[in-house]
């Protein structure tokens, strides 16, 4: 039986890790779980103790365990045919014009000294492959590095698809640092129905602290210019992806408030666990936890306000989705990548399952000379769910965490299946905060809480 007790604010909480069931405890129940059998034996003559044990038993005896059957195995075997793939992530540029302090893929260069760009001959191979694709709807994600370093090629790819794949519905997404985003770029991307995600970390001083050019100058003003161009041409604010670096001065709540003040609605914070592992000591964890607590309290109050007022405040939708995932108890793998039909293609045409693992030991083939049926032997680790991983199978948080991101695990421990000790400690402390607010929401907003399993009903 996997269980965990902790106290936070004025609450004493218990989670049954097998069923991902959360309870608030009184002092007696908390002591029983915290101190275990020795406490029970020592106090066995106390009727309150015996009655509480009976109460706990009656509540927990019928809790159902998560079914961790490897539900993805058949899916993976079906994915090895390239003509079945419905989503492609293209490293359109494995180079970048910035030199961000926390960059996890070294500007798209990864383990190499020099950058490289996707080439026109690869476009022909790729668009011809799409022509053979069995799916009517396909998603293409332009990634980097900085994709706009290779904007002419992006135009060529989209225009070629219009010519030879006009019968398919192709959805495009481009993630950019915003510094090269011009009117010419924006007009073409808007006409081509490309969704844009901008990397903007928050206030100028904070953004420029981490997101610098190679000459050490900050990039904030150029990113804002790019976003202003987007606003004028697309007619609305873009999706923003800030990187949360656990900075003590610029707390998570302060950053979020800055985005609200500047009327940004769609914000997707990306916690930089690789950066945390390198620069944050364990003694600083409480500071980070307090930041998360303050932030979620702010979001919680916004949700509460929205339930009773016509004028809506901003809600961090990414956290809402995370809560819903916990409540639906489905996270037996650390990555949702393998729920989709996705292939990553490097700038030289190399094929990978995961854009966070574009390393030679995980290469599936090459776009130019690959068979349509891919060799997936290098990805045998994906068949292991958290119940089959030595590091995870006895952890109370395994069905919340799912074992972590494969790419993060690889960079921190050298093994996609093994999160680092510091990462595990940090994640579990963050989960304690999340679970506290889930229980708080259940008590104070019961109707909204019930809707969390159906995201389309949320405010």
Treating each run of at least 4 consecutive H or I residues as one helix, how many helices? 16
How many β strands by DSSP?
Answer: 15
In order across it, which strands form the biggest sheet?
Answer: 10-9-8-7-4-13-14-15
Structural class: alpha/beta
CATH class call of the domain at 73-342: Alpha Beta
- Assign the CATH superfamily of the domain at 73-342: Aldolase class I
In short:
The chain has 459 residues and is of the alpha/beta class. The protein has helices at residues 27-42, 47-60, 73-79, 120-132, 151-164, 183-191, 204-210, 220-234, 252-261, 273-279, 285-308, 317-328, 398-401, 406-413, 421-444, 446-451, and strands at 3-8, 11-16, 21-24, 87-91, 93-94, 116-117, 137-143, 169-176, 194-198, 239-240, 243-244, 270-271, 342-345, 350-352, 365-366.
Task: Provide a descriptive summary of the structure in words.
The chain contains 16 helices and 15 strands. With 459 residues, it is α/β, with parallel strands linked by helices. It has a domain at 73-342: Aldolase class I (TIM Barrel, Alpha-Beta Barrel). The chain has an 8-stranded mixed sheet with strand order 10-9-8-7-4-13-14-15, with helices on one face. Strand 11, helix 9 (252-261) and strand 12 (270-271) form a beta-alpha-beta unit. Helix 1 (27-42) packs across helix 2 (47-60) and helix 11 (285-308) runs parallel beside helix 15 (421-444). The longest helix has 24 residues, at 285-308. The relative contact order is 0.12.
